[in-house]
Amino acid sequence: MLCGSLYALFAGFLGAAASLSAKLSLGPAYLQEMCDSALRGWSEGASVCGWMHVPLRFLCGGLLLCCNAVMWTMFSKALRHASSSAGATVTTTASNFICSGLLGRLVFRETHTSLWWAGISLTLCGLMVLHAAAPEQQTPQDRKDI
Protein backbone atom coordinates (compact mmCIF):
# COMPACT_ATOMS: atom_id res chain seq x y z
CA MET A 1 0.00 0.00 0.00
CA LEU A 2 2.71 2.50 1.00
CA CYS A 3 4.83 1.49 -1.99
CA GLY A 4 1.91 2.20 -4.35
CA SER A 5 1.36 5.61 -2.77
CA LEU A 6 5.02 6.50 -3.18
CA TYR A 7 4.93 5.48 -6.84
CA ALA A 8 1.78 7.57 -7.30
CA LEU A 9 3.34 10.62 -5.62
CA PHE A 10 6.42 10.33 -7.79
CA ALA A 11 4.28 9.91 -10.92
CA GLY A 12 2.45 13.12 -10.05
CA PHE A 13 5.72 14.98 -9.60
CA LEU A 14 7.00 13.70 -12.95
CA GLY A 15 3.77 14.80 -14.61
CA ALA A 16 4.30 18.30 -13.21
CA ALA A 17 7.93 18.25 -14.38
CA ALA A 18 6.75 17.24 -17.87
CA SER A 19 4.28 20.15 -17.88
CA LEU A 20 7.05 22.52 -16.84
CA SER A 21 9.29 21.18 -19.63
CA ALA A 22 6.51 21.62 -22.17
CA LYS A 23 5.88 25.19 -21.08
CA LEU A 24 9.59 25.97 -21.30
CA SER A 25 10.09 24.32 -24.68
CA LEU A 26 6.93 25.59 -26.37
CA GLY A 27 6.33 28.83 -24.47
CA PRO A 28 6.86 32.21 -26.08
CA ALA A 29 10.23 33.34 -24.75
CA TYR A 30 10.64 31.95 -21.24
CA LEU A 31 14.07 30.45 -21.88
CA GLN A 32 15.43 33.55 -23.59
CA GLU A 33 14.19 35.75 -20.74
CA MET A 34 15.75 33.41 -18.17
CA CYS A 35 19.03 33.47 -20.10
CA ASP A 36 18.95 37.27 -20.30
CA SER A 37 18.33 37.63 -16.57
CA ALA A 38 21.02 35.05 -15.70
CA LEU A 39 23.68 36.66 -17.91
CA ARG A 40 22.74 40.27 -17.23
CA GLY A 41 25.90 42.29 -16.71
CA TRP A 42 28.09 40.17 -18.95
CA SER A 43 29.19 41.84 -22.16
CA GLU A 44 28.45 38.81 -24.37
CA GLY A 45 25.23 37.85 -22.59
CA ALA A 46 22.92 39.25 -25.26
CA SER A 47 24.69 37.51 -28.15
CA VAL A 48 24.74 34.15 -26.36
CA CYS A 49 21.05 34.35 -25.44
CA GLY A 50 20.14 35.11 -29.04
CA TRP A 51 20.93 31.52 -30.06
CA MET A 52 21.19 29.59 -26.79
CA HIS A 53 17.44 29.32 -26.29
CA VAL A 54 17.11 27.05 -29.35
CA PRO A 55 19.17 24.10 -27.99
CA LEU A 56 17.62 24.68 -24.57
CA ARG A 57 14.16 24.28 -26.13
CA PHE A 58 15.21 20.97 -27.67
CA LEU A 59 16.65 19.88 -24.32
CA CYS A 60 13.36 20.72 -22.60
CA GLY A 61 11.48 18.83 -25.32
CA GLY A 62 13.62 15.76 -24.66
CA LEU A 63 13.06 16.19 -20.94
CA LEU A 64 9.32 16.32 -21.62
CA LEU A 65 9.42 12.96 -23.38
CA CYS A 66 11.59 11.37 -20.68
CA CYS A 67 9.44 12.67 -17.83
CA ASN A 68 6.28 11.40 -19.52
CA ALA A 69 7.77 7.96 -20.15
CA VAL A 70 8.96 7.56 -16.56
CA MET A 71 5.72 9.07 -15.21
CA TRP A 72 3.61 6.42 -17.00
CA THR A 73 5.95 3.72 -15.73
CA MET A 74 5.59 4.95 -12.15
CA PHE A 75 1.82 5.27 -12.53
CA SER A 76 1.62 1.68 -13.80
CA LYS A 77 3.63 0.51 -10.80
CA ALA A 78 1.37 2.54 -8.51
CA LEU A 79 -1.68 0.81 -9.98
CA ARG A 80 -0.05 -2.58 -9.52
CA HIS A 81 0.94 -1.99 -5.87
CA ALA A 82 -2.06 0.04 -4.68
CA SER A 83 -5.09 -1.52 -3.07
CA SER A 84 -7.40 0.37 -5.46
CA SER A 85 -6.94 2.05 -8.79
CA ALA A 86 -8.99 5.04 -7.59
CA GLY A 87 -6.57 5.68 -4.74
CA ALA A 88 -3.56 5.58 -7.06
CA THR A 89 -5.28 7.87 -9.57
CA VAL A 90 -6.34 10.44 -6.98
CA THR A 91 -2.91 10.39 -5.34
CA THR A 92 -1.19 10.96 -8.68
CA THR A 93 -3.61 13.75 -9.58
CA ALA A 94 -3.25 15.51 -6.23
CA SER A 95 0.53 15.23 -6.37
CA ASN A 96 0.52 16.59 -9.92
CA PHE A 97 -1.65 19.60 -8.98
CA ILE A 98 0.41 20.47 -5.91
CA CYS A 99 3.76 20.07 -7.67
CA SER A 100 2.51 22.05 -10.68
CA GLY A 101 1.46 24.86 -8.37
CA LEU A 102 4.79 24.87 -6.56
CA LEU A 103 6.85 24.68 -9.75
CA GLY A 104 4.77 27.44 -11.34
CA ARG A 105 5.38 29.61 -8.29
CA LEU A 106 9.12 28.90 -8.21
CA VAL A 107 9.93 29.09 -11.92
CA PHE A 108 7.34 31.50 -13.36
CA ARG A 109 6.37 33.44 -10.20
CA GLU A 110 2.70 32.55 -10.75
CA THR A 111 0.11 33.28 -8.08
CA HIS A 112 -2.93 31.16 -7.38
CA THR A 113 -6.37 32.32 -6.32
CA SER A 114 -8.15 31.09 -3.25
CA LEU A 115 -10.46 29.05 -5.52
CA TRP A 116 -7.42 27.12 -6.76
CA TRP A 117 -6.34 26.39 -3.18
CA ALA A 118 -9.90 25.37 -2.28
CA GLY A 119 -9.88 22.89 -5.16
CA ILE A 120 -6.55 21.45 -4.05
CA SER A 121 -7.87 21.15 -0.49
CA LEU A 122 -10.97 19.28 -1.67
CA THR A 123 -8.80 16.97 -3.73
CA LEU A 124 -6.63 16.23 -0.71
CA CYS A 125 -9.70 15.62 1.46
CA GLY A 126 -10.97 13.13 -1.11
CA LEU A 127 -7.56 11.49 -1.14
CA MET A 128 -7.63 11.09 2.63
CA VAL A 129 -11.14 9.59 2.49
CA LEU A 130 -10.04 7.08 -0.15
CA HIS A 131 -6.95 6.07 1.79
CA ALA A 132 -8.78 5.85 5.12
CA ALA A 133 -11.51 3.57 3.80
CA ALA A 134 -10.72 -0.10 4.31
CA PRO A 135 -10.85 -2.16 1.12
CA GLU A 136 -13.77 -4.56 0.97
CA GLN A 137 -12.93 -8.24 1.17
CA GLN A 138 -14.94 -10.43 -1.16
CA THR A 139 -15.93 -13.79 0.17
CA PRO A 140 -16.33 -16.76 -2.16
CA GLN A 141 -20.11 -16.59 -1.56
CA ASP A 142 -20.31 -13.02 -2.88
CA ARG A 143 -18.64 -13.86 -6.19
CA LYS A 144 -20.81 -15.06 -9.02
CA ASP A 145 -19.22 -17.64 -11.21
CA ILE A 146 -20.22 -17.53 -14.80
Automatic annotation (TrEMBL):
Transmembrane annotation, as ranges: 55-75, 87-108, 114-134
Entry keyword set: Membrane, Transmembrane, Transmembrane helix
Statement: the UniProt record of this protein carries the keyword Transmembrane helix: yes
Transmembrane helix keyword on record: yes
Residues spanning the signal sequence: none
Protein name: Transmembrane protein 42
Gene for this chain: TMEM42
